[in-house]
Amino acid sequence: MSGQIIFDPLIPLIPLAILAVLSLAGIALAVWRGLAGWAWRGAAALVVLAALSGPALRQEDRAPLSDIVLLVEDRSASQRLGDRAAQTAEAAETLAARIAARPNTDLRRIEVGDGEGDSGTLLMTALTEALAEEPRARIAGVVLLSDGRVHDLDQVPGLPAPMHLLLSGTPEDWDRRLVVKNAPAFGILDEEILLTLRIEDEGAVPDTMGGFAALEMSVDGGEPQILRLPVGQDAQIPVTLPHGGRNVLRFTTPSQDGELTDRNNSAIVQMNGVRDRLRVLLVSGEPHPGGRTWRNLLKSDSSVDLVHFTILRPPSKQDGVPVSELSLIAFPTRELFMEKIEDFDLIIFDRYKRRGILPALYLDNIRAYVEDGGAVLIAAGPDFASAESLYRSPLAQVLPGRPTARVVEEGYRPQVTDLGHRHPVTTGLEEAWEGDWGRWMRQVELTPERGQVVMSGAGERPLLILDRVGEGRVALLASDHAWLWNRGFEGGGPQLELLRRLAHWMMKEPELEEEALTAEAEGQRMVITRRSLSETVGDVVVTAPDGGQTTLRMEEVSPGRFEAVFEGPEIGLYRLASGDLSAVIGLGPAAPREFEQTIASGSALEPSVEATRGGVRALSEGLPAFRDVRPGRPAAGRGWLGLTPRDAYETRAVRQMPLLPPWMVLLLASGLILAGWLREGRR
Q1: Model confidence at 328, in pLDDT bands (50, 70, 90)?
Q2: Is 596 strand, coil or helix?
Q3: Minimal CA–CA distance to 222: which of 573, 591, 589?
Q4: What angle do CA 137, 141, 143 make, to 5 degrees?
Q5: Could you tell me where the beta strands, DSSP code E, fall in 136-224?
Q6: Mapping DSSP to helix (H, G, I), strand (E, B) and coil, where does residue 127 land?
Q7: Of 662, 670, 677, which is closest to residue 39 (Cα–Cα)?
Q8: What stretch of H or E contains 415?
Q9: How far apart are CA 641 and CA 623, in angstroms?
Q10: Burial (CB count <10 Å: 0-12, 13-18, 19+), residue 623
Q11: Could you tell me if 43 and 672 are in contact, meaning their C-beta atoms sit under 8 angstroms apart?
């Protein structure tokens, strides 16, 4: 039970103040005029003013409330290193018993695990949520059991009581980690890229650890390359990407005896390989209405370096013009077709026929160029069906179709074949153009000898044949009328998209491979895609970082495209295999956030702890005792930590009694006025 005097004025404060001023003025006037009863009259005025101020005695029936201490236990992945888990569990039980033994004290235990994905230890978020469920006036203190590696310091709550941090781990802990300081998202093919890596040792590093460490580097899960790097220094690693598209680079430094974990000894870098410039050689033969189609297409792309070799005057033409006056400079045919041919990514023959300009030796060199990895595209006109056809040259060994010497001169609409609906060059081509395709008016009749027929023309004759020859690729388009689509004839057609896909397939762009196994990651979830020209594909075997294997059945989602979804159980490098195809993909970082820094340290939380006058102590030094401290006083010392008693209470009942009841006011005021009148009457 507690009591206090309160005031509840019967009239507003301003009128009450005016009455007080008037009363004071009246008393002053009485004193000035020498009235003997001024004191009694002033006392009567004070009684009336006191009554109007509403004095009352308020009595509360209070029940004391217990103090609350929050014990937050870090159970994240980094707390499972070494003997930290057992150390933390033992300390939590001992501290819980000590806090529970304190009089008028309740304990709230909060366990914090790993955050979602790779968010790390969200200790402050858990503390904020716990504080939201408790009255702040009862919080006597917060005790954190953690290694100090907290990843949500921006969520530190304001606390009305001390916060203390008890660090797990031992003074002998040490760890080695691999850090990628700089890695670009893409790299130019065939150009050296410099990645900056650093091997760091933290904690009580043994004297036996030398100044250098081994580093294994592998690309797409291939044979690793062994390097030696200085420990504690930035090192630049030269890397050359082997292919376009995604390249997965894995760096690993071997684990050492005694280090806390090897989970941070690896790093995965995923880089996209891109071509700097696409070098194309365009060889044009007899001029025709669509002669500039290929040139305009290639010149419109700023990433293409085009060399255009065109023959406007054949040797057979007799007009009396001296050969020395046919050009300003001699065209470097030998340099182009013999010495520098390997510098080109693609060679296009547009309605070219043998006229003696390019000797058979040059054409045979182009054949060898294809077999060694080059690409040749032939846009065939009527010349391809003649005796001067390129088919009747050394190039015939790499061409996928044989001309029958017949040229079909009739209108037809190009069609994508059943196989073409599965091939990435032509799949979805019909949906890429609104409306019907316009007709073409000419086609060279071909007999397919190998490769895939992805488009057909008049009478379902082969129109576009694609083939792989050795390491290279060949495309044979049996018509020179693709330009009609460009001119919008009968509505036109997807000429630009077709030729773009065709050129990029021949230059081995990964997204246009007809047989491919790829995967895209979203957090811990990966979508595996298998492209194939076959109607069925085998299962995909997924090998996890720990060596465990999972077999997935692929479901066809569109012609030639099969997919499966896999939820990765852990972060790291996964290997995929389906028949002869393989791929690698990294889910999250190779070293999760929990293992970036593993040595226990209170440096990150120390400013927040000091702001509450709390302390940071190591569990390896023993468990501290608890003492009561007043608010604002230091709450940590040698061997002890402070808790602030809150003296909180619950009000169960309230009683209020007026100190000046009306009858008493009337009696006192009347008596004082009468006494003043009598005093003045005696004079």
Answers
A1: very low
A2: coil
A3: 573
A4: 145
A5: 139-146, 163-167, 174-182, 186-188, 192-203, 212-219
A6: helix
A7: 677
A8: strand 415-416
A9: 10
A10: middle
A11: yes
Cα–Cα distance for residue pair 351/379, rounded to 1 Å: 6
Q: What is the C-alpha separation between 681 and 683, in angstroms, rounded?
A: 5
By the 10 Å C-beta count (0-12 exposed, 13-18 middle, 19+ buried), 565 is classed as exposed
Structure tokens at 45: 């005025």
CB 563 within 8 A of CB 554: yes
Looking at residue 395, its amino acid is L
Element at 247 (helix H, strand E): strand 245-252
Task: Give the pLDDT confidence of 58-102 residue by residue, as tens digits.
Answer: 776 667 788 999 999 999 988 988 899 999 999 999 999 999 889
- By the 8 A CB rule, do 576 and 519 touch? yes
* The amino acid at 453: V
Beta strands in 41-162 (DSSP E): 55-64, 67-74, 105-112, 139-146
Lowest mean pLDDT among 185-189, 220-224, 476-480, 659-663: 659-663
Where is pLDDT greater, at 324 or 388? 388
Q: What's the average model confidence in pLDDT over 424-444?
A: 88
pLDDT band at 331 (very low <50, low <70, confident <90, very high): low
**Cα–Cα distance for residue pair 475/348, rounded to 1 Å:** 9
Instruction: Locate all alpha helices (DSSP H) within 248-374, ordered by sequence.
Output: 293-299, 333-334, 360-371
Confidence of residue 623 (pLDDT cuts 50, 70, 90): very high
Which residue reads 């000035």 in tokens? 32
For the segment 583-597, what is each residue's pLDDT rounded down to a tens digit? Answer: 888 776 656 788 888
CA distance 261 to 413: 65
Cα 97 from Cα 105, distance rounded (Å): 11
Q: Beta partners for 561?
A: 531, 558
In the chain the first and final C-alpha atoms are separated, in Å, by: 53
Q: For the chain, what percent of residues have pLDDT higher than 90?
A: 34
Helix (H) or strand (E) holding 268: strand 266-274
Q: Which SS3 state, helix, strand or coil, does residue 281 take?
A: strand
What CA–CA distance (Å, rounded) separates 611 from 163? 9
- Residue 213 CB neighbour total at 10 angstroms: 21
Round to whole Å and give the CA distance between 140 and 162: 7
- Given a cut of 50, is residue 261 above it in pLDDT? yes
The tens digit of pLDDT for each residue in 628-681 reads: 999 889 999 988 999 999 887 766 667 777 777 777 777 777 777 777 677 766
More confident residue, 252 or 324: 252
pLDDT at 321 over 60: no
Dist. CA 96–CA 88, nearest whole Å? 12
Give the DSSP letter of residue 571: S
d(CA 167, CA 619): 6
